[in-house]
Each structure stands twice: as C-alpha cells, then as structure tokens.
Amino acid sequence: MQSVRTAPHDLAAADPVARQTRAWSERRTRTALGAASVVAMLLAWWAASATHMVRPDLLPSPADVGKAAVEVITEGYRGTTLLQNIAATLGRLLAGFGVATLLGVPLGLWMGSNRALHAAIDWIVQFMRPLPPLSYMILLILWLGTGDLSKSTLLFLTAFPIIVAASAAGVRGVKLQRIQVARALGAGRGAVFRHVVLPSAAPMIMTGLQIALAAAFSTVVSAELLAATDGLGWMVISASTFLRNDIIILCIIILGLLGVGLASGLRAIDRRVIHWRGRE
Amino acid sequence: MSRSIPAWAITLASIAVVLCAWVGVTEGGLVRDLFLPSPADLWSGFLELIDEGYKGRPLLVHVGDSLFRVGAGFVTGVAAGTLLGLAMGYLPKLDALAAPFVEFLRPLPQLAYLILLIIWLGIGETSKITMLFLAALPVAAVAARDGVRNVPAERLRVAQTLGASSWQVFRHVIIPSALPEILVGARLAAGIVYGTLIAAEIIAGSSGIGWMILDAGRFLRSDYVFVGIIMLGLAGIAIDRALLLIEKRAVHWAGR
User: Which option is the CATH number for B38-250: 3.40.50.620, 3.40.50.970, 1.10.10.60, 1.10.3720.10?
Assistant: First the structure.
C-alpha cells in the first residue's frame, strides 16, 4: 500500500540494501509527519477551547473528553460501561457479518460457476446491493421486533449482497485459458475449482469482504441510533439528548479507531492469506 | 445443461416465480398485508402517492429533496476529495500529514458525526449536506491519491525527458493516468452518500424518501414503505449505471 516511489536515476535504488534503508527512513519520516499533524490538531483543539474561541457547550476541551472517558470506563454511562457498549456493537457486527460471509461466499462461488443460477439470482443481488440498509430496517422491526435479531438481520442483509456479488464476479473473472490449461493437463472439476478457480477468485472475495465489513460497521451504528438500549450508536444518540458533547466526541473517536482497526485487521489477513495478490 | 436457454429468459422466469409467490402468499392470506402488502396494494399505494403526495408534499418533491441532498454532498465532497487526493499523491509530505485524518474519517460511521453536526449547524439542510460532503471526501481522496501513485514511473520519465514542465506532466500525464481510479472512487462515494442520506433522513428529517419510509412505517402503512424501498432500489441502480456509463465514456483509454 505505502508505495515508495524510488527515483530511478538514483543509483542507490539499484542496491537492494540501500533501497531497504531508504524505504525505512521514508516510512519513519511519514510516521513522524503523521504524528506531528495529529499533535498539531490536538493542540489547536486545546487552544480553541482554552481561549474560549468556541463555546464550551459546542466543543468541549480535550481534557473534558478525557474526563468523560475515565467516567464511562469506570462508572459507565447510564448503567452500562463503555466496554459493554463496545462489545454490544461489535457482537452485532460480527454476528451479521459472520453469517453473511459463511453463506455469501459459497453462494457467490456457486453463482459464479453456474450460469443458470447466476441468471436466476443475480437480479435480486443487484437490487439489494445499492439499497440503503436503513430503508428496510423499519420492515425488519415490523417482522422481527426491535431486538438484536432485527439488527443482526439488517447487518446480514447489508453485507450479504456485497459478498455474493464479489465472490461471483471473482469466479466469473477467472481467465478461461487457465481453466482450459488445467483441464488439458488432466485436472478434474474438483481440482480445477480448488487449485485454479479459488485462488484466482480469492483476491476479489477478500476485497468484497472488506467493503462489506465497512458497510456493516456503518450500518450497525445507524441501527443503534434508531432502536437500541446499548451499543456505541445508542451512546451517541443518548448523549446528544442530554447535551453531553464530551461523550459524543469520545464515542466518535472510539468509533473511528474501531473502524480503522477493523479495516486494517482485515487488510492484514488479506496480505497474509492472498500473498499472490497483484502478481498474477 | 442450460446452455440452450439464454440467461435473460432464466432471469425473467425467476422474476415471474418471485412475483407469483408474492401474489400467492399475500392473496392466499398466508401473511397479513401489514407485514407484506400484495403487489396490487403496492400499485394502488403508488398511484395514491403520485396523486396526493405524502403528508402535504407531492411525491416528486420528496424525491427532489433527496436527490438535491445527494447531489450537493456528492459533487462538493468528490470535488474537494479529488483535489486533496491529487495533491496527496503528488506531494508525499502532504500525504503523510493528511493521511491520519483521511484514514480516520473513512471508516467512521457517518451518522455518528451527523449528531455532532446537528448540534453545531442545526437540523436543516446544512448539517445533512455537510455530513454527505464528509462521507464522500475521504473515499474520493484515497482513490485520487492511489491513482496518482500508481502512474507508471516510465511515463513520468518519458514526459520529463521530452522536456515537459511539472505542470505539463501533471496535466497531461498524471491526470489522464489517474482518472480511471478517480472515477471508480467517485462511483464508490456515490453509493456511500446515497446510503447515508437515507439514514440521515430517517434520523433527522421532515422530507425526502428516507423520511417518508420511516414515517409511513410508524403509521404501519407498509404499502408506502415498500413503494419507497423499491423506488430507492431502482434509483440506486440508475445512479450507479449512469456513473458507470460516464466512466466508460470519459476514460475510454482505461485498461489500455
């Protein structure tokens, strides 16, 4: 990802050791600059609130947010601790996303390799995919009640079409020559699927999983804003009715970090598992 | 196998089967129309919405309100994000400075900061459009940055060798090479903005299709809910296809 463009006229670039050192030092500069800009931003925030440039009821100071963090970690917020709320949000997310992965990848693979099935199901997937999940939340509440089941189903329906479409597209994108070569060399259907189709489709499936997780993460918080009694989304909306801006900002920071963590976690798995990505 | 039957015929048959099952289940009284209205109910609900509008406003006004918000947030967010991304791709130092914020904003659930924007900017259009702007911006920025970064180094060197100034390189080499990725990013951003808008209207709104769906749901008018959802689905597909068409027209050189 962090591609370091080495200047080709630089003789050092030809030397692998020098190139490695250069890459390291560029990465260090990058991290330092990134850290500096975050610190600068925090200082600006602190200065803006310390000099009362913005009203404290609109933007609490970093210290206030820190105090709020200690408060919700130790005492909790309206009866639930911060960790319980994080666990509630992540639990819903993983339930919906996990089931969508377990069902969506096989269905997508099957659709990708069976034209008739693809023709029969693809229109449903294509209709579901751009549909804003919250628009059918109200139906799920009507059908399944306001409990966790309707929320997990919502997340399932958010992630499922993305995963199915990516898996099917991955299989359909496999080069015909590769399959023909494998068949010509005597591979059976199962062997072709395992050794040719699956590895070729895997990068696209993993990309689909990453997009689906991001979509589900954003949906879980929206769902909790609408109908929930715990979770980070609930915390945000509840804090807003009590004008606790410090807790809102704290939740936004936690949500952002969680989002970054989830995305980079899946990216790390991607790099591990799909080590052949981009070298096809 | 099914090689003789064309794919479109199977798709049509599948649509027909789903419709028949829907009619059968609803007309046969297997589910109450509160949970699943029949296709006929849907159609009459749709005609009613067209004739009378919803809650004092014509249907087209709700559609227009939603489209205006999506358009405003999408255009401003993608324009700003693309400019930022181009600069980030061209200037690695700027990239290092801005990346933490872009990477933080990108996976952040948009509705979480909508609450803050409502406190800061009020509950009107400004807070919604600002949220959509912030939803589109990081997606477009990352796409443009990666587009610039992935320009093959030989192309830059050839242009430089031939005496192009840095502006000329940027204008005639980097932008055309990065454009395919920028447009893919724009399409991704459109999807996110579209999904987020409906959520925003559901949380805080008094007009728009998202609001109509939630409000109709509260009054248990599931026919209106279904009409709204189907309209959203079709409009979503239309937006995506339109952007795909623009992409193919505008970057006819992609992949070559």
Answer: 1.10.3720.10
